[in-house]
Specification:
There is one protein chain. Helix 2 (46-60) runs parallel beside helix 4 (91-105). The longest helix has 17 residues, at 2-18. The protein has 7 helices and 5 strands, in the order H-E-E-E-H-H-H-H-E-E-H-H. By secondary structure, it is mainly alpha-helical. The chain has helices at 2-18, 46-60, 63-78, 91-105, 108-123, 150-162, 194-206, and strands spanning 20-22, 25-29, 38-39, 126-128, 131-133. The protein starts with a helix and ends with a helix. The strands form 2 sheets. Strands 1-2-3 form a 3-stranded antiparallel sheet. Strands 4-5 form a two-stranded antiparallel sheet. Helix content is 51%, strand content 8%. The structure holds zinc ion (ZN). The site of zinc ion has 3 residues, from loops.
């Protein structure tokens, strides 16, 4: 529907206006009145804004949207040592966005950046009863929630290792786009393709 695309384009306009650019990166303010805090995460900041912008670019092919989406990725990569391990507001969610960007654009540098985030996650591991685990959003406890804990970390690491889209994306996004992920050609046009198997496997592992 054209009117929905127009509305999405206006949302993109707003994000473009609100972005804070510094060097090659783009950050967004948290939105609270008077706050000057800038974030790079999914629930607030570059990862969430970029998640929308890369899809808006795929639908419109307007260069300004992919430029901003790539700047969001640069900010995420620059801030990577300061983010907790939470899909909602930390490295796993940021990494999911970098994998989205690699799939949408075919640029492997974003996959390498996702590798960098995973390496930082590994530095924060801890041993419990002989098992290597990752802390949750608090950095001091281990819980298993998707948005704030271990299952979200696993979902990112499984996708990083085995490919496929972000599990919440199917089947309505990426229409007509081919993924450039190694050994996989993802063309989503309403058909069930092998990528769904990856998704099911990620979900099964996360549950
Ligand atoms: Zn959050």
């Amino acid at each position: 529907m054209v009117e929905y695309l127009d509305a999405a384009r206006r949302a993109g306009d707003t994000l473009e206006t609100a972005a804070v650019r510094e060097g090659s990166g783009a950050w967004w303010p948290t939105g609270e009145k008077g706050s000057l805090t800038l974030r790079t995460n999914w629930c607030s900041g570059s990862s969430g804004a970029g998640t929308f912008l890369v899809r808006l670019w795929a639908a419109t092919r307007e260069e300004r949207f992919i430029d901003l989406a790539e700047a969001a990725a640069a900010a995420i990569h620059r801030e990577r040592w300061y983010s907790p391990l939470a899909t909602c507001h930390g490295l796993p969610g940021d990494g999911q966005y970098l994998l989205d960007l690699a799939d949408f654009t075919g640029q492997q540098r974003f996959r390498h950046w996702a590798d960098d985030l995973a390496a930082i996650m590994m530095t924060r591991n801890t041993l419990r009863d002989g098992l290597m685990l990752l802390p949750d959003e608090t950095s001091s406890d281990i819980t298993v929630g998707y948005a704030t804990g271990l299952s979200g970390c696993l979902a990112f690491l499984l996708r990083l290792g085995h490919g496929g889209p972000r599990w919440a994306d199917l089947p309505f996004l990426c229409v007509g786009l081919r993924s450039h992920h190694a050994n996989r050609s993802i063309l989503i046009e309403g058909d069930l393709l092998p990528v769904h198997l990856n998704r099911s496997r990620s979900l099964a592992a996360a549950e």
